[in-house]
Amino acid sequence: MTRKRRRLYIVALGMLSLAVAAALVLTAFEDNLVFFYSPTDLKEKELPEGRLVRIGGLVEEESIQRGADNRVSFVVTDLSNSVPVTYQGILPDLFREGQGVVAQGSLGPDGVFVAREVLARHDENYMPPEVAEALRKSGEWRPAEESAAQ
Amino acid sequence: MNRTATSSQQSGSLHRFANPARFLRLAQAVFPWSAGAMALCIAAGLYLGLFVAPPDYQQGESVRIMYVHVPAAWMALFVYANMALASASLLIWRHPLAGLIAKASAPVGTAFTFLALFTGSLWGKPMWGTWWVWDARLTSVLILFFIYLGHMALINAFENPERGQKAAAVLTLVGVVNLPIIKFSVDWWNTLHQPASVTRIGTPAIHSSMLWPLLLMALGFTFYYVTVLILRLRAEMLASRLRAMNRLAAEEG
Amino acid sequence: MEGGISEFFAMGGYAAFVWPSYAVSGLVLAGLFFVSWRELTRRQALLDRLQAAAPHRRRKPKDPERT
Asked: Which of B108-112, B244-248, C3-7 has the least mean pLDDT?
């Protein structure tokens, strides 16, 4: 075997080993790599109360209720399950019903999620307002629902 | 060293360009065209992106950040892929130019990665509500940034340029596993960063009026990489010659 | 594009995010270009000076592969 070929095999084998190692590490840490739990995850996992977690999903239609002092309550849904959330503070521009959302906080004893931080999540679609309006009118597509329900 | 000279003369077509003198002539011929194309594409991309393209239906005018953020991110990955190829070429085939190509590319890749992170942060604050999150996409791109820095540090840590290039080449190849992680992070795990709009199977999820400036900027950035790479490669080769002259002068002096 | 110049610069309220993105991108990329250009011209000038100063000697043809 020429020296060149041997070097090629060494590099190839090294890369393969690295890929396998990375895949193993990532699979092992799967749970930690998850950025948020969906409402369904939350129900299934039964996390201890008071633990800081992130939940994500869509803001359920007609669930936003605003109070005094920047207080707000709404419901996060993944179209199978939902979790009520309360939050006090400034909300991102994109926050609204039907929009993706990620909230960080903890689940209270009453099943209400007390959020310390609320982030908006948007989908990968980009289009002018007129095109979105036309799609909405024709009933063909509901924005934010597809990828937010991941 | 003589072994390398003859083997590159005897081997296939690509190896012709391993001859530095021939490569230099090619690079110098390409340079004005690449620079011109860079200026044209970026100018056209900026014009379309800032003046012609519409605001986004949900992100409004902030979407215009996309025309620098996404091309920078694409380039961060593209430049690294080239460095990885050069690194493999250096370690396996001992191409004399390969180490220099990797070394010359690193600052460009680092700049693009920094810009992707910086503009991404400025885009995330108004849209997501935060400057930064440790989700899989952002974290893996930050890791890429540190690998770029590590590459440059390694090369400069060695007195012997060849040793430094070889060490950096190993680091670059080890870091290659990060590339698919970055690309597929938004699919494999749930992240705050949304999935791909362009580089995906199926039609792009982006309207043509926005896709054009995006592609033009990406093309412009690619020509930028080629242009700056040529500048840096020529500088590296001059540095080699100057080092050789110094050595000769020291031996004779 | 509707409205005037000020509306353009306001970027729908996102000016503080959009313009620094473009400005920093321009600065970084232009900066890297000029630094790379300057490095090249400086080394070329140095080489020219050295070659002009030292008389050209006859020596073995330089191996182009030698770094």
From this structure: C3-7
Residue B174 burial by CB count (10 A; 0-12/13-18/19+): exposed, middle or buried?
Answer: middle
Checking if the pLDDT of C53 tops 90, the result is no
Q: How far apart are CA C17 and CA B119, in angstroms?
A: 8
Whole-angstrom Cα Rg for chain A: 22
Rounded distance between C-alpha atoms, residue B167 and residue A148, angstroms: 43
What is the value of pTM for the model shown? 0.90
**Do B145 and B114 contact (CB within 8 A), yes or no?**
yes
Mean pLDDT of B115-136: 96
- The span from the CA of C37 to the CA of B114, in Å, is 21
- The closest of B217, B213, B195 to B115, measured between CA atoms, is B217
Nearest to C65 among B1, B65, B108 (CB): B1
Type and span of the H or E element at A63? none
Instruction: Report pLDDT for B141.
Output: 96
| pLDDT score for B66 | 98
pLDDT tens digits along B126-157 = 999 999 999 999 999 999 999 999 999 999 99
Residues 105-144 of B with CB under 8 A from A: 126-130, 133, 135-136
Question: Which residue among A7, A35, A119 sits closest to B130, beta carbon to beta carbon?
Answer: A119
**CA distances in angstroms from B3 to B101, B195, B230, listed in the order given:** 21, 49, 27
How many helices (H) and strands (E) chain C has is answered by 2, 0
Distance, CA of B201 to CA of A122 (rounded, Å)? 20
